[in-house]
Amino acid sequence: MAKVLINGYGSIGKRVADAVSKQKDMEVIGVTKTKPDFEAKMAVDKGYKLYAAIPERKSLFEEKGVDIEGTIFDVIEDADIVVDCAPGGIGKENLENIYKKYNVKAILQGGEKAQYVEDNFNALWSYDRCYGKDYIRTVSCNTTGLCRTLYAINSATDIVKARVVLIRRGADPNDAKRGPINAIVPNPPTIPSHHGPDVCSVVPELEGKIITSAVIVPTTLMHMHSLMVETTGTTKDDIIDAIEKTPRIFTVSAEDGLNSTATIIEFARDLGRVRYDLNEIAIWKESINVVDNEVFLMQAVHQESDVIPENVDCIRAMLQMEDDNMKSIEMTNKAMGLMK
Amino acid sequence: MAKVLINGYGSIGKRVADAVSKQKDMEVIGVTKTKPDFEAKMAVDKGYKLYAAIPERKSLFEEKGVDIEGTIFDVIEDADIVVDCAPGGIGKENLENIYKKYNVKAILQGGEKAQYVEDNFNALWSYDRCYGKDYIRTVSCNTTGLCRTLYAINSATDIVKARVVLIRRGADPNDAKRGPINAIVPNPPTIPSHHGPDVCSVVPELEGKIITSAVIVPTTLMHMHSLMVETTGTTKDDIIDAIEKTPRIFTVSAEDGLNSTATIIEFARDLGRVRYDLNEIAIWKESINVVDNEVFLMQAVHQESDVIPENVDCIRAMLQMEDDNMKSIEMTNKAMGLMK
User: Whole-angstrom Cα distance, residue A294 to residue B222?
Assistant: First the structure.
């Protein structure tokens, strides 16, 4: 059993902890928090061993009556790997100040920069490259969504040039601090945005072949991408077929009532998914089109959860637990109850 | 003085009435309403002669004590031209049932279909084609915004292929009925959207060279467009220069704090614009880029007001009041107090 420590039990960390717990070949040996909030209390209630991410804060947990086992330094030497789920930017500090010092393998999240790690992970594209490595980043929710769909397109034809406009959610559902409430924000206001290069950190062969622009809009549920991908030649049926064969992406039909990110999330709620997570990327079937060998489609990305199964596969690759990426994907999906 | 009747004093009609009133060579001989609401009362207070758009409803106005001159049929024969500002779909009915019957020239708005009229108007592209015509449509806010910017790009280079993703506002600010409140809606869910063909109704030479997709998001202030335009060759400086030379489009800088549609509207409010209308298209300077001869930019479109000066110019073209489109544009802009 691979021993996994989750450093930072927040939006991503709590989901990775739950997903790891469900796997047969790995276990969560502890989760960390910086403060004794409701998430910390619920972690303990769920049976996770809780550690203070910042040693000086351990007493805060005790004062609040939250069961705390110790600090991260009491558990880190027992871990085979740490999944760092700290807020963006902190992961890099943790890598330098903790993981490298304690010589423990670590996964950083997409909020960190690509150059701080040995390689960048997507289960479809770079599993083999990350196999046995020590410090790897699982890319962001948007990059993960793009990598999966571009993998499907690439399996049907050759990509000549990909253009993507990302329409990003303004804040997560639990975030009452951020906006916008009533505005469209070009973010970044420059073109290209960083999303294209981030895809290339996983898929170097797309260097010079992908350009992205991005805006932020007032919604909390999902991101959305409008893709325009020039290819050497393909058909709509081939693309639909490729999507069907690619794990973790599926088509939805506006005609079926799945006509917005709101109804897609309602679908995830009706599926009974915990926290209504939709780890798979939803592609609108009606939007899929091929005109002059250029593939068009629109997809919805659940920003809180699409990277979770990737973190699980990344653990398996880095700890050399399974050398076939498709087998790891299947194991992860089955344990998590994903559609495919 | 050209005698102009405004049929439908709503979001567009009230603005067209005000813009026409400000011109030296035309006057508003009346405005119509279907019901005696606050807009009807304010029209009378502002000195417009008010007529019932639907004859049977005239008594409703009298019951409410709103000064009503009569019905549309009491004034239509005095008009040189009618600007139809009825809700989408009604304009076509009015064209068949009223304007053609009374043999009066008429302008329909962008909510009507292109095929119902003789031609489609944008002051930069199709003024000459519409000159002296009887039934013309001024295209929608989105199409108008695209036409202006593509005109600028076309003046600097040749357009090979334009790809545009439109991020549309969900509802106008006065509209408490429509959504979405928290969702991104692919609308239409099919690609291409109708916006490309609508641009071609004004610019037939772009046929087969423009493809658009569109989503609706929870905001009321402005639409936004992300443009990717392949050309035969140009530079960023040439594009900025072309934008500067093109009327009714201008650049804003995110660095200056104009970093969202919200701050662009704040800018219009600070300009003292009535109803905070921004008739000009705002292009983010930071977003303008040329990579491999492809022009990238993002622009904001004030959906309630960008078509207003076009309606004024369209009147001048159809009534053969001025044969130089650039002179008409200048007259209109000056009278309305536009930047350029």
Answer: 29
How much of chain A is helix, strand and coil, in % rounded to 5?
A: 40, 25, 35
* Whole-number percent of chain A with pLDDT over 90: 100
> Encoding tokens for residue A49?
């061993």
Spatial contact of B108 and B82, defined as CB atoms under 8 Å apart: no
Chain B residues within 8 A of A284 when measuring between CB atoms? 186, 189
Cα of B195 to nearest chain A Cα, Å: 15
Domains of chain B: residue spans and CATH: 2-139+307-336 (3.40.50.720), 142-301 (3.30.360.10)
Whole-Å CA distances, B119 to A179, A270, B109, B131, B219 = 42, 49, 12, 10, 32
Judging contacts by C-beta atoms under 8 Å, the chain A residues touching residue B261 are 183-185
* Tens-place pLDDT, residues B200-211: 999 999 999 999
pLDDT tens for each residue of A116-170: 999 999 999 999 999 999 999 999 999 999 999 999 999 999 999 999 999 999 9
Residues 6+ apart with CB under 8 A from B261: A183, A184, A185, B219, B221, B222, B224, B300
The answer to whether B228 contacts A163, with C-beta atoms less than 8 Å apart, is yes
All residues at 6 or more sequence positions from A246 whose CB lies less than 8 Å from its CB, including other chains? A124, A148, A149, A151, A152, A155
Is B147 among the catalytic positions? no
Q: What is the DSSP string of B148-188?
A: HHHHHHHHHS-EEEEEEEEEEESS-TT-SS---SS--EESS
A-chain residues near B259 (CB < 8 A): 185-186, 189
Q: Do residue B215 and residue A226 have CB atoms under 8 angstroms apart?
A: yes
Residue from B85, B130, B141, B314 carrying the catalytic annotation: B141
Distance from CA of A186 to the nearest CA of B (A): 6
In angstroms, the CA A136 to CA A202 distance is 11
